[in-house]
Structure formats: C-alpha cells, structure tokens
Design brief:
single chain, two-stranded antiparallel ribbon, 74% helix
Length: 324
C-alpha cells in the first residue's frame, strides 16, 4: 500500500506530461490555422484546382515519401547504438515531431528522442540526433549555396562586400573557437568529456553516415519538388530551373535563421515572397504554397504523432532487434 501512492502519482504525472505535449501541439496547429483567412485560402485552392483528386494523390504521396525517408534515416543512424524496427522508428520520429512542434528550431527533438531508449544510451542518442540533423543541414547548404549563387547572378543583386567580409570573419572566428574547444580534453558537455564524445563518434561506421546523407539527399529532392509542383500549379509558365533556384534559396535562408517553430511558416512565407517576387509570382500563391507544405509535412504528421505520444510508456523502453 505504501508504494501504491507514489506509483499512482507517477502515473498521473506521466499522463499530465503526455496531455500537455498533445494539447500544446494541438494549440499550435489551431493557432496557425486561426491566423489564416480560411475562406480565401480554400477559394484559391478550388479556383486553381490545387486539391483535385490527381493533385491530392501526388501531394500526399510525396509527403508520405518524405516521411518514409526521414523514418528510414532515423532507423539507420541509430543502428550503432540500438537496432530498431521501421515501425519503432516511425513512432519515435512522429512522436518527437509532436513534442517539438512548439520549441525553437524544434530543439525539443533532442529531449524527446532519447526517452525512447534505455537510460545508458540517452546521451549517445542526443549526439545521434545532432548528427542526423547535421546531415540534412549539409544537404540544404549544398543545394542552397548553388541556388543562391545562381539567384544573385541571374538577378544581378548588389552585394555589400564590407558586410560579407565581416560575416566571413565572424564565421572564421567562431570556427576557430569551436576547433580550440574540441581540442581540449578536460571540457565536459552534459557531464560527458569531449574525449568520450570523440571516441563514440569514431565508432559510427562511415557506411552509416554515407547512407544517412544519401537519404537526406533523397528527402530534399522530394520536399523541394513537392514545393515545385505546388507553385507550378499557380504559375505553369515559369521554368523549372528558375523555380528550383528560388526554392533552394528559400530553404537555405530559413534554415540558418534561429526561429521559434511557431513562426516558421511566417518566416518562410516572408522569405518566399521576397525571393519569388523576382520571378513575378503572385504573393498569395506563394503564401498558399508555404501553408500547404506546412499542413502536409508538419500538421498532419504532428496530429498522427499525438497518438504515439499518448501511447508512450516511460517505464518500458522500446523492443530492439538483437544483432546476431
């Protein structure tokens, strides 16, 4: 009987945490939808036949592929720590999305994903999450730098070189500090020495990193072409290369600007309106496209993730596939 009260209290606290996460995610989604002029939004979709049966199948199919590769990416990158099933990877990916929807730059993902693993592996999973996100960022930078270079050249944008030199100098200075810190053996991050972190990183097979980046590459191609498909429905006369140049520029700029996720759509919309303004694409078409991209790739998966959050058990770590 003495142990019954603490156990019930723990169960109540667990339920409260789950409900808080789900209600927070739902409020975020509701708040975002409330900001839209729903009548005008749906009218624009119907006028341009954006959500015809054929187009809806294509858009939902691309979103499913996008998340399939994200789930596969997570399954692959966690394999050096624990071999998890594709189903478990889906649960962790969507559950952590729901838990991190309302955090800055989805930083809540670093706290959500480790709780799916045994306590002894959680610090490793934080590092694995960082590596996973860095792989996607690397692909975004690669395509983004190509896109923005062509964008500047095509529209002959004026570059303020004095500010560019300051930015390069600042990045060089920050890089030098990071390199200096990484060489220090006594410094600890989260109670773990840098030396132990380096040792762990060396245990991750190069093949795993290569596959992770390849999957990140495929993900980028899928969601960028989903963006292209949507914007081209409004503006079929604009060339493929011009639109893709704009899309890669938008993702580059929005990915390097720290922002609360609740303002992510607003930030991307502002950047997209500015970029596509050079291509004479209607502002409302741009905002509608960004909003639909958010609905397809974040709102719907976030709602699905609520199911996994509510069914998650803190007391039982996920079953893993034993390596033989």
């Amino acid at each position: 009987m003495q142990n019954a009260i603490p156990y019930k209290s723990k169960q109540f606290l667990t339920l409260l945490i789950k409900l808080s996460i789900v209600f927070g995610a739902c409020y975020f989604i509701y708040n975002r939808l409330h900001q839209l002029n729903i009548g005008t939004f749906w009218e624009a979709l119907q006028l341009n036949q954006i959500l015809s049966f054929k187009n809806s199948c294509i858009l939902l199919g691309l979103s499913a592929l996008n998340w399939f590769f994200e789930v596969l990416k997570w399954k692959v990158i966690t394999s050096p720590v624990k071999e998890i099933s594709l189903k478990m990877s889906l649960e962790q990916s969507l559950g952590s999305l729901t838990a991190s929807l309302f955090t800055p730059n989805r930083i809540g993902e670093y706290g959500a994903k480790p709780i799916y693993f045994e306590k002894k592996d959680r610090k490793k999973i934080v590092l694995i999450t960082l590596i996973n996100n860095m792989g996607q960022m690397l692909v975004t930078l690669f395509f983004g730098l190509l896109g923005i270079s062509f964008f500047i050249k095509s529209f002959q944008l004026t570059i303020i070189y004095s500010r560019l030199y300051i930015l390069i100098g600042l990045l060089t200075f920050i890089s030098a500090i990071i390199i200096f810190i990484l060489k220090q053996k006594r410094i600890k991050i989260g109670g773990v020495s840098l030396q132990r972190i380096k040792t762990f990183l060396k245990t991750i097979p190069r093949k795993v990193i290569t596959i992770n980046i390849a999957l990140a590459f495929l993900r980028y191609l899928i969601f960028s072409h989903q963006f292209y498909f949507l914007i081209s429905l409004f503006n079929p006369q604009i060339s493929y290369l011009e639109i893709m140049m704009g899309i890669t520029t938008i993702y580059l700029i929005s990915s390097v600007v720290p922002m609360l996720f609740i303002f992510d759509v607003i930030l991307k919309s502002s950047i997209a309106v500015w970029v596509f303004g050079y291509l004479n694409i209607n502002e409302f078409a741009v905002i509608t496209t960004i909003t639909l991209m958010w609905m397809l790739n974040f709102m719907i998966p976030g709602i699905l993730g609520s199911y996994f959050v509510l069914n998650f058990s803190f007391n039982h770590p996920p079953k893993v596939i034993n390596k033989s």
